[in-house]
Write a structure and sequence with these properties.
five-stranded parallel beta sheet; alpha/beta; Rossmann fold; globular; 230 residues
């Protein structure tokens, strides 16, 4: 019997690693997709390769999508500083300067194309809307609309087998993501969440603060910290 296939969007971060692990636990054969989009933090690409290897994906493609050509984000324009040491209230209010215009829209579209090319029935993405900065392309309704489009946009959909966009973590808290990753033995030790590159996470950006709080709430040591060289 032909294996069920899924495309997993692997960024190198914690959320995508857990989402991909969920797909693997659902017995999908995994096709990983990672993007070099001009992000200032290229450390996550190294992490993405390690996560994909740990999950024994069937294939791993790294595509270049130059979103930095548009700028307007602290993640793609080094002239815009990454916010540091913001309060929890500040992190949870508004759309931060780390939002990359159109990023998930581009990524999901590419994932859908990849899924059709390999005959995959699902595209897994690790986006979630709770306990995180208010990115508009991480909301449940965003993915609902994507699935409506997926039914119209591809040959496989017209033939009755549209690929489904799956965001299993979309309404989870960050601590639940950590707990699930721990229970499923997701390769969290290989992940990188910091918005900066370097030998160690900065510990001060929004992503670092949210990650640290999530592991603390879950009562689980962050395995990635144990892998850092002294």
């Amino acid at each position: 019997m032909k294996a069920r296939r899924a495309v997993v969007l692997v960024s190198g971060g914690l959320d995508s690693a857990v989402a991909a692990t969920i797909a693997k636990c659902e017995r999908f054969e995994l096709y990983a997709l990672t993007f070099q989009y001009g992000q200032r933090n290229e450390r996550e690409l190294e992490s993405a390769k390690k996560v994909a290897d740990a999950l024994r994906v069937k294939e791993h493609k790294i595509l270049t999508v130059p979103l930095d050509a548009f700028g307007q984000s602290a993640l793609t324009d080094k002239k815009i500083p990454v916010p540091k040491q913001r309060s929890k209230q500040e992190i949870g209010t508004g759309v931060p300067v780390t939002y990359v215009p159109g990023r998930n829209t581009v990524f999901v579209a590419m994932g859908l194309a990849y899924a059709e090319s390999v005959g995959a029935e699902a595209v897994f993405i690790g986006a979630h809307a709770l306990d995180y900065s208010g990115y508009p392309d991480c909301r449940p309704e965003y993915f609902e609309k994507w699935n409506e489009l997926a039914k119209l946009a591809t040959k496989q959909a017209i033939e009755g087998a549209p690929a489904k966009i799956v965001a299993p973590l979309v309404q989870w808290t960050k601590s639940k993501i950590v707990e699930t990753g721990h229970d499923l033995k997701a390769p969290m030790k290989h992940t990188w969440s910091c918005y900066e590159s370097g030998p160690a996470p900065c510990g001060k950006c929004d992503a670092c603060q949210i990650r640290a709080e999530a592991f603390a709430r879950a009562g689980i040591p962050d395995p990635a910290l144990a892998t850092l060289k002294p």
